Amino acid sequence: LMLGLGSSDSLRGIFSPVFQEHYGVGGRGLSMMVVISYVGNLLFLSVGGKMMDTFDRKKVAMGMLGIWIAAVLLNILTDSYPMILLSMFLALGASTMLNTTVNLLTPMVCAGYAGMMVNIFFFIQGIGTSGSQFLLGRFAFSYDGWKMINGVLFAVGLVSLVLFAMVNLKPEKIKPKTIQKKKPQDMPGASIFWLLVLMMGFYFIGEHGIMNWMLTYCMNALQMPSRTASTYLSIFWGGMTVGRLVFAPVVQKLGVRKSLKYFGGAGTVLFVTGVLSGSKGVILLSSSGLLISILYPTMVLFFQQIYPVSVVATKTGAIISAATIADIVFNAGFGALSDSMGIQISFLILPVCMVLYYCFYLLLLRVSPSEV
Question: pTM (2 decimals)?
Fold first, then answer.
């Protein structure tokens, strides 16, 4: 499942130039594809988090997987820009909820070593992301390649669904001793919630901006051929992949707070330096993926340490949903901004957002509950 989701999530950025040529759309058309996918994220997380806390989590997860499979099938059977928008809405919305589901279930079924296992699961996802970017950018950089990879993902989805149905997973009945039991009255207030939203929102813009726009940035702003550009993109996601495997034991040893502080700070420095250095610094930008690799899954674990188990899915869904609005606003304007000012100037938004992400995390450490 994580292998397939990683490949699916990367397709938007890989095939953006292909969509421009095939459908005759410009920067605004590409922005609409990204925006509609994040609208799907927002709606699916808003509803899905509450469903996870209310209904059988296995059935909810299988339902989301079914929606993702249907979206992939839509890409295979149709050939129009509106259908691509619909498939992006369904696929990315369901995919994000499935990622969150894996993150939420991990502490329940891997009690005592969740920090390590959640990064290993996302390492597997990274194999799908970086592998698809590397291979498709070289050998299937065409509309036929778009159809082919969706056929592969459809098969992966069906196999995952069958295997999931065979697993006897009842996480709502598992009560591991290592999960901290907080009472409702101990739940942090609105200020902590909104700091988490701001932190996650700026991080989303930074990381997702690389996925969605780095290939276009390298080709259009830095005048790189598609193979070279896809190499740098695959290095970034290769670092995200390897980092989650290599640093999983480190996260387990350091703990959530220190891991986010050290890796977040070092990764942000490398990210910002890479963008500001232009073509000479692209390798630094690509290499930053190694250090920021553990940030997203570890941040979601951070949420689970703050909120009670009974509401953690709802709160996690609400935080990521609200943070997704930042993605929507960014991508809604980025295409138009790149058309008017050039992508090299507009791309500078990404390092600014990474700096803001880290500043809000440091602020959160000062005002969050001491027991977290």
Answer: 0.72
